[in-house]
Design brief:
The protein has helices at 40-43, 52-60, 62-71, 76-82, 97-108, 112-125, 129-153, 160-167, 170-203, 227-242, 244-271, 285-296, 303-307, 316-345, 356-363, 370-401, 420-436, 439-444, 449-466, 474-499, 505-523, 541-554, 559-580; strands at residues 213-214, 224-225. It is an all-alpha fold and 585 residues long. The chain has a two-stranded antiparallel sheet with strand order 1-2. It is globular and about 75 Å long.
Length: 585
């Protein structure tokens, strides 16, 4: 794999031919132009797209260009300095650890905790749902550690796209980012539909679809048009476009109010706590706990969008670790306490899987408290939409900066300091999907992208620490990759054993010993790069464990998720070949 050192800006491969320009130039030094201009040159400025003849010439060079992109890695300087000039105006550094902490809270704590907890407590884990949340929280925290180190070292808007581009190469970064953007668009559309359903059910409990428009001639799953979902998406995304600090302020005001409601739920639950409700604690044994852990993990997702705000953080080396690691630690404790309060109030066999907390309060004579739960859930979906819009816009901006999509979408508005075009792109796509598509259709195409990127980031962190071109010896390089494949292989082995129904301890012990030997092998290698400010502790053990846990969670998904991933990836690769590779950036 070709490594481009951050300190070197000359003799770079075809992937970055324009890096001979002054790398210290700031986006503010660019000539001031109208933000709202729109021409072919703004969308396709590369010489490859000048005319049909130039494009044919670029396509004829597709093989060497593709080889270059597959083998070359970007540099920190390229991501932090050179690409930012594509935005013409800088994003405003206006966020502190306080903003990041509440953004993470607002993005992660949505309606999921209120829906998933009851379902899994009743069907699988029972009172041990608390342990399921603890296991999932620990797995999420491992990924947060990896995100935090990268965000501190490379504080850029692209998040995982930029991190993977620097460590694993352009092609892998593009494929991962493309899938996670698709998932984000589908997820936002799903949140919009959920918001309208929840709001409608508060008004008319018998018909949650009464605010939707039914078109009989349309196919099932696409015949209930949802204008309210579109309005909710447009409002949330408009707030995100109006300014990062304004969005952060509204988010933490709403999130603080939600925090008080959650404290109320926990306190009331513990007051009405009955230890007899916790018996039996493991109704389906360890299997039920692990199966529920794979499901409730999705209640922790969303923090990756907060990591994309690093470019707008005042002091990344201090604010990001406090904001991300601190918030996820608190969220894990909160989720465990909420699960404990629920299973302590009501016997797990009597929990309503569709409205667990609302029915639980009604059963103890506090029916009025169900409105607090509804408000909390609506708020959670709203803040998730706002923070998600911020993250989606930043992802799209960095992808556009690298000319994977037209650089027109990379522009940052000089007044708001936000990427309006990038945010509009994801907003329009989400609104169209939400308007036509029902929740069951959206949920059936939920992607594996989040877990895949979490796993790839753990791999990228190990590559960053140990594999530095021109520094690592050939023998150490071979040893590193052998150990890395050993870790991945043993993780897949454990997952395969579990999914095949094998519960004997011998296979798991053998796979665990192989995993430990691979991790130990890496730990004996010299670390060729150390973090400058903040780093993941216990490397390589924690990143290796993150790989194993994410592979295990990937194994919990059904074949439809993998099929969708393969189909979408094939389409993205086709786009990459005909548009991405001909680009000269």
């Amino acid at each position: 794999m070709t490594q481009i050192q951050p300190s070197t800006e000359t003799n770079q491969p075809l992937l970055y031919p324009h890096n001979n320009s002054n790398p210290t130039m700031d986006v503010q030094d660019s000539p001031r132009k109208s933000y709202w201009r729109c021409s072919k040159q703004d969308f396709f400025p590369e010489p490859s797209f000048k005319d049909l003849s130039s494009y044919r010439t670029a396509l004829s060079q597709i093989c060497p260009r593709l080889k270059d992109r597959l083998l070359s890695r970007s540099t920190e300087t390229h991501e932090l300095v050179t690409l930012r000039r594509e935005s013409e105006n800088p994003m405003k550094k206006c966020l502190t650890w306080w903003d990041l902490m509440w953004m993470s809270f607002g993005s992660v704590v949505g309606s999921g905790i209120f829906v998933i907890t009851g379902q899994e407590a009743r069907e699988n884990a029972g009172p041990a749902i608390v342990l399921s949340y603890a296991l999932s929280g620990f797995s999420a925290l491992l990924s947060v550690f990896c995100y935090t180190e990268f965000a501190v070292e490379i504080p850029v808007a692209g998040g995982s796209f930029s991190y993977l581009r620097v460590e694993l190469g352009d092609f892998i970064a593009y494929l991962a980012a493309g899938n996670i953007l698709l998932e984000a668009v589908i997820g936002a559309a799903g949140l919009g539909r959920s918001w309208s359903s929840y709001f409608a059910s508060m008004i008319n409990t018998k018909n949650p679809d009464f605010m939707r428009i039914k078109i009989a001639s349309f196919a099932d799953g696409f015949n209930l048009l949802d204008p309210l979902a579109v309005v909710v998406l447009l409002v949330a995304n408009s707030i995100a476009m109006s300014g990062t600090k304004r969005t952060s302020f509204l988010n933490w005001i709403a999130s603080i109010a939600t925090a008080f409601i959650i404290v109320f739920i926990i306190v009331v639950g513990l007051i009405h706590f009955k230890s007899s409700n916790l018996v039996p604690y493991f109704p389906k044994g360890a299997e039920g706990v692990f199966e529920s852990a794979a499901v409730v993990y999705w209640a922790y997702t969303g923090f990756d969008m907060v990591a994309t705000m690093a470019e707008e953080t005042k002091n990344p080396s201090r604010d990001i670790p406090i904001g991300l690691v601190g918030s996820m630690s608190i969220i894990t404790v909160v989720y465990c306490l909420m699960a404990l309060a629920l299973t302590g109030m009501v016997k797990y066999t009597e929990i309503d899987p569709n409205a667990a907390f609302s029915v639980a309060f009604a059963q103890i004579g506090m029916k009025w408290a169900t409105y607090l739960v509804s408000i909390c859930a609506l708020k959670g979906m709203t803040t998730s939409l706002m923070v998600g819009s911020l993250g989606q816009g930043r992802y799209t901006t960095q992808i556009a900066r690298s000319h994977m999509i037209p650089p027109w979408f990379a522009r940052v508005h000089p007044k708001t300091g936000t990427p309006i075009y990038a945010t509009l792109l994801t907003t329009i796509l989400s609104a169209i999907v939400a308007f036509f598509t029902s929740l069951d259709v959206l949920s059936s195409v939920f992607s594996i992208s989040t877990l895949l990127i979490f796993m790839l980031l753990a791999v990228a962190l190990l590559v960053r620490r140990y594999y530095v071109k021109d520094v690592i010896s050939k023998n150490d390089s071979v040893t590193f990759f052998v150990c890395l494949f050993t870790i991945a292989g043993s993780s897949i082995g454990v997952t395969a054993l579990w999914n095949s129904g094998v519960r004997g301890w011998i296979g798991y012990v053998v796979a665990s010993v192989i995993w430990c030997s691979g991790t130990l092998g890496i730990s004996l290698l010299p670390k060729n790069r150390v973090p400058k400010v903040w780093g993941v502790p216990l490397v390589p053990w924690l990143p290796s464990l993150s790989i194993a846990m994410n592979v295990f969670l990937l194994g919990s998904l059904d074949y439809k998720a993998f099929l969708r991933f393969i189909i979408c990836s094939a389409v993205m690769i086709l786009y990459y070949l005909i548009v991405g590779c001909p680009c000269n950036i």
